[in-house]
Design brief:
The complex is a heterodimer of chains A (238) and B (663).
Chain A lengths: L5 E6 L5 H11 L3 E6 L4 E7 L2 E5 L5 H11 L1 H6 L2 H11 L42 E4 L2 H17 L8 E7 L5 H27 L8 H15 L5 E7 L1
Parallel strand pairs in A: 1-2, 1-5, 5-6
Antiparallel strand pairs in A: 3-4, 6-7
Helix pairs in contact in A: 1-6, 2-4, 6-7
Chain B lengths: L2 H13 L4 H12 L4 H15 L6 H7 L4 H7 L5 H24 L4 H16 L12 H4 L4 H18 L13 H4 L20 H13 L7 H17 L1 H14 L14 H24 L6 H19 L11 H7 L17 H5 L18 H14 L2 H24 L7 H12 L25 H26 L5 H21 L3 H17 L5 H18 L6 H14 L8 H10 L5 H5 L2 H4 L5 H14 L1 H17 L2 H14 L6
Helix pairs in contact in B: 1-2, 2-3, 3-6, 5-7, 6-7, 6-9, 9-11, 9-12, 12-13, 12-14, 14-15, 21-22, 21-23, 22-23, 22-24, 24-25, 26-29, 29-30, 29-31, 30-31
Classes of the chains: A alpha/beta (238), B mainly alpha (663).
Chain lengths: 238, 663
């Protein structure tokens, strides 16, 4: 899919919801990247008040090993190990949303970021958010992403092209089963959006609606079929 | 030039910047061509070069004035990608051209082009351009990429036309200031830019006026509008700060009305929720980053924030009560058709007349499948119940489209021009820029080129079409009027036939064309010989008379050959009961020669139709004396050659009419 939309999925820890959505979109052939907006990766621990906390950039493999060492029974029973096994096949490590002003994470943090370092020569900031559509999986993450774009607009008003980025929240509960369902809902929406996008590329004349004109209606159609994932949608300038 | 060649030229220009200006010139020339793919490539190239730092500032600064002509031209391309890229480029070069005009006060032309370009772009903001217009409400949420680019352009305009106020805490040679060109730099008495004071605040007023409409903005427009304000906030805090807070505090999506024709209420509620969410995020952005020092303002923002958070808790489908659509339609009368565009979508009657949204189920329904009486009932019922002024408004839309189409076909233009653009074009024509003067000479009156002369075969083709049509119309009329059957009809029929016949004999000089008409009449006759004998008789009489006029003593070649042809085609199909027709024919044609009489031989020797033949011969002998001799010859021939039955018949006639030889 050469001219398909570029997607990004975002949740809090870049472990469960964003990674499940990352997987289904990737399996469907899309160009996709994923991030977490939290301050660190939080996973269930031995008790509810003792979560396991890892810094972003810790490879999934390493997290896996540490959890197995900690309590293989518990982490198998709660599905966490199965989740991390899935993740490590997709990319190397959970990545934090690249907040503006935050020091760039070291190069070993991300997974397949090599393929995406398409920094156009001359532009000041790396074009690290070069996506058409960003799916967030929780309202808190949506707010964080929008607020970060506003901060980019404020602090670097002359950077970038001011490209349109569609940011869409698909609310998903943070458990393994919900993430599976949520991933399918995101895939359905992504397919609808991509179909409209491809259609908008076919004709250029005064009657063919551009992609951006179609997004709100697509969301309304999708929402009526998926009432369990209340949506949010804003457009940002990158 | 192909896209591959352009790509290599681009690589070359960016590799060796000394080549950039000449390659730029070439690409500008190509950009205004008719190939949309090339135009797209060129404007995207320009956007890449002038946006960002790929090309050094000095080079962009020098080259930017030469872009303006191409930008103006490409702005009329009917493609959202091209138009939004053009606006992005204009945004990128606006401050460069502004700086250039400050530096070169003698160059008035460049700035006037830029001013024109600016008004062209801003004038389109509330339209759907480059898409075809539908209605105001819908158009405000269409062509979103173009509107987003226009909002970004507003951001640049505000930066340039609102003065930079230096923060005394920031060092003098801060790079943030180096490239910030604004009216603060314009020297007093600058010959071109002297009157740009106050323009920034006017722009700001216009922008807020447009967006503080009672109609809810679609989410992309609302959020991009606020994002652009946030961009300008950093550079011109003094002017933007207060506006942003008033916007945030005053904004209430629930108080805004949905577009008149929006039928999807879920969508409306979603847009309200999305916009409120953005407003909430904007508040937290401003509060979190300590933009707000004033305690009173902080309190107000906190309060608004809580209201919005509370509102977001409800489910989407209960988000707010939206007025039912019927009520809205009444409320906003005067604009009650979804599609009141004066530009039809294509050349069909459907798009000429439709006032419906494309997705409306009615628009897909083919009315012609209904029986006529149902349609008539529907139309009469509608006409008696419809409000007259509504009907007139609807008809006015259709009439405008019709006028538009007619104007378009007269000027042969393929690009649709709306009245709005017409005004703009007028403005273009009136401006001082001679490049946009239409290219023609007033002194010489325009003349149509002379028509091409037809070749003889084309003439023949046309002639046979005309005559066929003539005959068809004439026989249709006769057919339709058969029942009524008055004297008028038969006279009219005679007159039409007579016209044709006269055309053959005396109307046309060219013999080949005459033959075309003759063949047409002949074919017409052959299709229904029994009922069309009249026209053939009149025709052959005229043929004879015409040849008689030309040479009374001469022969009648046309008459003879066509009469023989008629007989050849006629006789084999006659039946015994056709006596009257055959006798009428031989009696009414002016001349019967031996050749014609001899053709009756086939009838006379036919075992079934022989009576028909002999009765005709008897008639000729008795009532057409000039033919008597020919008939005797035929009888004699048959008497000598034929078998017993025929021989006997012939002998009977010969005894009676040639008693001197046979007795």
């Amino acid at each position: 899919m050469d001219s398909a939309l570029k997607f990004c999925t975002v949740c809090a820890s870049n472990q469960n919801r964003s990674m499940e959505a990352h997987k289904v979109l990737k399996d469907a052939g899309y160009d996709v990247h994923s991030f977490g907006t939290g301050s660190a990766v939080r996973l269930p621990g031995p008790s509810i008040d003792k979560p396991n906390v890892f810094p972003f950039g810790t490879p999934y493999e390493q997290i896996y090993k540490e959890l197995i060492a900690q309590d293989p029974k518990l982490h198998t029973a709660n599905g966490v190990l199965r989740m991390i096994e899935r993740n490590r096949d997709i990319k190397r490590a959970p990545e934090r949303w690249p907040y503006v002003g935050q020091t760039k994470p070291s190069s070993n943090s991300g997974g397949d970021s090599k393929s995406r370092s398409s920094t156009p020569p001359g532009s000041g900031l790396p074009r690290d958010l070069d996506f058409n559509v960003i799916f967030t999986c929780e309202e808190r993450c949506f707010d964080a992403v929008i607020e970060d774009f506003l901060a980019r607009n404020y602090f670097h008003p002359d950077e970038g092209f001011g490209e349109i980025v569609h940011v869409i929240n698909v609310e998903i509960r943070d458990d393994y089963q919900s993430a599976l369902l949520g991933g399918q809902a995101i895939l359905e929406l992504a397919n609808m959006l991509n179909e409209a996008y491809q259609d908008s590329l076919k004709n250029y004349d005064e009657t063919s609606e551009p992609f951006a004109d179609r997004v709100t209606s697509i969301l309304a159609t999708w929402q009526s079929k998926n009432p369990n994932h209340p949506s949010l949608y804003n457009v940002c300038l990158n | 030039m192909s896209l591959e060649q352009l790509e290599s030229a681009k690589a070359l220009a960016l590799q060796d910047l000394s080549l950039f200006p000449p390659i730029l010139d070439q690409i500008l020339a190509i950009s205004t061509g008719s190939d949309l793919h090339l135009t797209r490539w060129c404007v995207l190239f320009l956007r890449d070069c002038f946006h960002g730092k790929q090309v050094p500032f000095e080079l962009r600064y020098q080259q930017s004035p030469k872009l303006l002509d191409s930008l103006l031209k490409c702005l009329t391309v009917k493609d959202t990608v091209v138009v939004s890229a053009i606006i992005d480029i204009t945004t990128a070069v606006y401050d460069l051209v502004f700086k250039y005009t400050i530096d070169y006060p003698g160059d008035t032309e460049t700035w006037s082009k830029m001013t024109l370009l600016k008004s062209e772009i801003l004038g389109r903001f509330e339209t759907a351009d480059p898409l075809l217009p539908l209605n105001r409400d819908a158009d405000l949420s269409r062509s979103i990429p173009v509107k987003v680019s226009t909002l970004k352009f507003y951001g640049k305009l505000l930066t340039v036309h609102l003065p930079l106020i230096r923060d005394p805490r920031v060092k003098e040679n801060n790079p943030q200031y180096d490239l910030d060109f604004s009216i603060a730099m314009v020297p007093p008495n600058h010959p071109v830019l002297w009157n740009t004071d106050g323009e920034g605040e006017n722009l700001l007023d216009n922008l807020f006026e447009m967006l503080s409409d009672e109609l809810i903005q679609t989410t992309p427009i609302f959020t991009v509008f606020c994002s652009v304000l946030v961009q300008v906030l950093r550079k011109r805090p003094k002017y933007i700060f207060g506006r942003i807070f008033n916007l945030i505090l005053g904004y209430d999506s629930v108080l805004q009305r949905p577009p008149v024709y929006e039928t999807d209420m879920l969508k409306v509620k979603m847009v309200q929720r999305y916009n409120d969410r953005f407003n909430k995020i904007l508040i937290s952005f401003l509060l979190n980053r300590n933009f707000v020092k004033d305690a009173g303002l902080k309190q107000k923002l906190d309060k608004k924030f809580k209201v919005l958070v509370e509102r977001q808790r409800v489910k989407i489908d209960q988000y707010s009560r939206v007025e039912p659509i019927a009520h809205l339609a009444k409320k906003y009368q005067g604009n009650e058709f979804y599609n009141n565009s004066i530009v039809p979508k294509d050349n069909t009657y459907k798009s000429l007349f439709t006032l419906l949204q494309d997705s409306n189920a009615l628009a897909q329904f083919d009315m012609s499948t209904l029986p006529l009486h149902v349609l008539v009932d529907m139309i009469t019922t509608s006409l008696t119940t419809i409000d007259t002024s509504t009907l007139i408004r609807g008809l006015t839309v259709v009439a405008d489209r019709y006028t538009f189409e007619v104007a378009k076909s007269l000027t042969g233009q393929t690009n649709a021009v709306t009245p709005h653009q017409q005004q703009q074009n007028q403005a273009v024509a009136e401006s001082a820029d001679s490049d946009y003067e239409p290219d023609f000479d007033d002194a010489e009156p325009y003349q149509l080129p002379p028509p091409k002369t037809l070749t003889i075969s084309e003439k023949k083709q046309q002639m046979s079409k005309i005559v066929e049509n003539f005959i068809r119309l004439s026989s249709d009329q006769n057919h339709n009027h058969n029942n009524a059957g008055g004297a008028d009809d038969s006279q009219k029929k005679d007159f039409e036939n007579w016209l044709l016949i006269r055309l053959i004999t005396r109307g046309l000089k060219d013999e080949t064309l005459v033959d075309v008409v003759r063949n047409c009449i002949f074919d017409h006759f052959v299709q229904d010989m029994r009922n069309r004998i009249d026209i053939v008789i009149s025709w052959l009489n005229e043929e004879w008379y015409n040849e008689h006029l030309q040479d009374p003593a001469g022969s009648f070649p046309n008459y003879t050959s066509w009469t023989s042809k008629v007989l050849d085609n006629f006789l084999p199909f006659l039946e015994s009961s056709d006596r009257k027709i055959l006798i009428r024919f031989v009696s009414e044609v002016p001349l019967i020669d031996l050749g014609m009489v001899m053709k009756l031989k086939s009838l006379c020797s036919d075992p079934i139709r022989y009576k028909l033949g002999f009765q005709t011969l008897q008639y000729l002998i008795m009532f057409k004396p000039p033919a008597k001799e020919h008939c005797i010859i035929l009888l004699e021939t048959m008497y000598e050659q034929s078998s017993d039955d025929v021989k006997e018949q012939c002998l009977g006639y010969l005894k009676k009419y040639s008693p001197e030889k046979y007795h």
